[in-house]
Specification:
- The protein has 326 residues and is of the alpha/beta class.
- The chain has a single domain, classed as 3-Layer(aba) Sandwich (Rossmann fold).
- Helices cover 44% and strands 14% of the residues.
- The chain is built from 15 helices and eight strands.
- Strands 1-2-4-3-5-6-7-8 form an eight-stranded mixed β-sheet, sandwiched between helices.
- α3 links the parallel β3 and β4.
- It starts with a helix and ends with a helix.
Length: 326
Amino acid sequence: MKEWWIQVGLLTVPLLAVYLNIPPPNLSPALISWRSTGMFFTFQGQRIFYRESWGVVGSSDVVVLLHGFPTSSYDWYKVWEGLSQRFHRVIALDFIGFGFSDKPRFHRYSIFEQASIVEALISHLGLRDQKVNLLSHDYGDTVAQELLHRYEHKRTGHINIGSLCLSNGGIFPETHHPRLVQKLLKDAGIFSPILTRLMNFYFFSKGISEVFGPYTQPSEAEYWDMWTALRSNEGNLVVDSILQYINQRRKHRDRWVGALVNASVPLHLIYGPLDPVNPHPAFLDHYTKLVPKSTFSVLDDHISHYPQLEDPTGFLNAYLNFINSF
């Protein structure tokens, strides 16, 4: 019996070694197109991917799109054309650790750094003195809150924010319900490197499918695009580090919620009410109570955590109605 277990162990070790070093999937034509039409700039030695389109002639309006976790700027592809028909410039980036941007190992990922990257991009594009509209989702909501705090306090290098629209983000730690896999990876400690290497397409797609509505599930090709963008530059190996943003939200709750409460710019919320991460009605009730100056749009009952992908038409209409209202 002992010899049998030894043989199994000897067979398992090389198989596990091969599995843990499985190469990332090839980029789909859609992702190749997205990357090829984008550019990179450097922030503190790290390459940051961004994409920009020039739209309406004769307008000076700019919108900057801030994506969620664990995906990338590609989250905005379904509303990109519609935004380009309204704005002079449409800009999106992959935060450090996401998408096609660099994903350094043993890096201290933080919301503060991501906000500084957005500020650096705005400066890089020559928009420091330009009013910009922020449109954010999920993780990007918290980055937007930090940018808003800096704007309201006139911090050096701040972005001149013209408006802010949030969507389905954990902006209140008290109403945020992270998924089980997020809790496991965030708090795994010394086991994190093992769990991140064991992550594969099956577990990824199963986990993220839980935050889409039953009638708005992505196709398998769309799941593969999300997974491929995450695996690019071995992004699966830094997920546990990025997830510390959940703890940062709790630690800096007063700073980031206070930015919304005391905002001087137009605020709006686009909300998919089937969201299990920020469930209805608790989240919306809390939002309208704490941020009464904000307007909001609630999409159809079957729309969940990724409204810009699940209902791009409804999402775009809600956002443009907000923009055109002031």
